[in-house]
Amino acid sequence: MNVADWPDWMRMVQAAAPLLPQPSFLPLLRQAGWALVLAALVSAALQGFGTHWIRDKAGLLALACALWAGVPGPWGLSYWLGLAFQTPSLMAMVLSLQYLWQRLTQRKWPQNVQTPGLAATQQPSPCWPCRYAVLGMVLGWLLLLDTFAYLALALYAWGFSPLAYALLFVLAIGPWVMAPGYLQTAPAPALLVVLAVFGLTRWPTGNVWDALLDPWLFVGLHIYLFARYRAHRGD
């Protein structure tokens, strides 16, 4: 089927330019992304301390790190993190925002809100967060092997293909189709948000893998799965 045979709406979508941000806005986006990620990381890390005082001050310390990341120029954390890791992935930003919102709502309404980790431990299998984490970890290792040309398939280049985008949508709606009762424990809504934003903007690079995974999130998936394994063995 040639392009000339496509319907008018398909040709318009194909010809439409992605809504990429202006270059002058990229530093602001990088600062906002690192502010979200650092705030979520600090908040999550301090919750594991046994000292009650540290847990109470986790919100203030997370806010301080977020503000520090928003400082422009070499005095800001986002400047140095951007030199080493560029911009966080869309998935890391959405998950960080989701975590911070859950922490905020839990503080306001502790009787009615349950943390994702606690809800996941109370739900029977299948563990959808674990499955998505395993898929992300496997994808990260495959992309790492592709970086060093150990794969026969150019996996990273395939991230520019609409087929990869469609496959990820199938994975995102998997919990609704296979196990609707476990929808609340699955990160599928975050994946749908990321895919929707990427479909409109092609941000950050036009490659869907860059929108889904970054080095920090790749390492975080290993830590998350190890913590879940330890918790399962402890039970």
- Per the principal axes of the C-alpha atoms, what is the gross shape? globular
Rg over C-alpha atoms, rounded to the nearest angstrom: 20 Å
* Biggest sheet layout: none
- Figure out the total of helices: 14
Proportion of residues in helical segments = 55-70%
Low-confidence stretches: 9-17, 111-125
**Distance between the terminal alpha carbons, to the nearest Å?**
57 Å
SSE run: HHHHHHHHHHHHHH
Structural class: mainly alpha
- Arithmetic mean of pLDDT: 77
DSSP strand content:
under 5%
Count of beta strands: 0
What is the count of distinct domains? 2
Description:
The protein has 235 residues and is mainly α. It folds into 2 domains: 7-88, no CATH class; 119-235, no CATH class. It is built from 14 helices and no strands. Helix 2 crosses helix 5 (77-85), helix 2 packs across helix 6 and helix 6 (90-108) crosses helix 12 (188-201). The N and C termini lie far apart (57 Å). Mean pLDDT is 77; it is low at 9-17 and 111-125.
